[in-house]
Specification:
It contains 5 helices and 9 strands, in the order E-E-H-E-E-E-E-H-H-E-E-E-H-H. It is an alpha+beta fold and 177 residues long.
Length: 177
């Protein structure tokens, strides 16, 4: 079974490829992981968050902090980001897939004053297996979170997150109408 999916022409990159957790990035790539995201599913719904600065719905997650990066402690990043963006605590997850993004040389964001400096970004996506929901609101760039059916989430998510969700559904053999 081929576990790799490639998509072409997201607005911010040339190509994205995803690989299953069994095909881990080598240590060289782990040292360059820039962001971690969570796939959080409950009662056949997925948790997505709205980022008003990006004007789009996204999977919860974010950039790896320097201390997390030094230790390659991506679980710590996942915990911190899901607490900040989705008010989830006691998060336990396992790596579901990795993504290698070949970034465009052209500007992908009008707010940037120069071209994106890195030719590749390396992302880790976790399947969140356990969590506890809280009402603790932490200051975050996220304005709201929603539990949605997979079909509705696929409609709202941006192209890169949509590709990850399709990969997840395919790997879990989940079909939607």
């Amino acid at each position: 079974m081929n576990t790799e999916i490639k998509t072409i022409n997201p607005p911010w990159c040339h190509s994205v490829s995803f690989s299953s957790k069994s095909e881990q990035f080598n240590h060289y790539h782990d040292n360059k992981v820039t962001a971690v995201f969570g796939i959080v599913v409950k009662n056949n719904q997925i948790l997505i968050v709205y980022n008003p600065s990006k004007k789009k719905w996204c999977l919860p997650g974010g950039h790896v902090n320097k201390d997390e990066h030094v230790m390659n402690d991506f679980h710590k990043t996942l915990e911190r980001e899901l607490k900040e963006e989705a008010q989830l605590e006691d998060v336990k997850g396992e790596i579901f897939c990795n993504a290698e993004v070949h970034n465009s040389i052209k500007k992908f964001n009008s707010e940037l004053k120069e071209d994106y400096p890195y030719p590749y970004s390396y992302l880790k996506f976790f399947e969140v297996l356990n969590f506890k929901e809280t009402n603790k609101r932490i200051i975050s760039e996220i304005s709201k979170k929603e539990w949605m059916d997979f079909k509705d989430a696929l409609y709202l998510l941006g192209i890169s997150d949509k590709t990850v969700l399709k990969f997840y559904l395919n790997q879990k053999k989940i079909t939607i109408d």
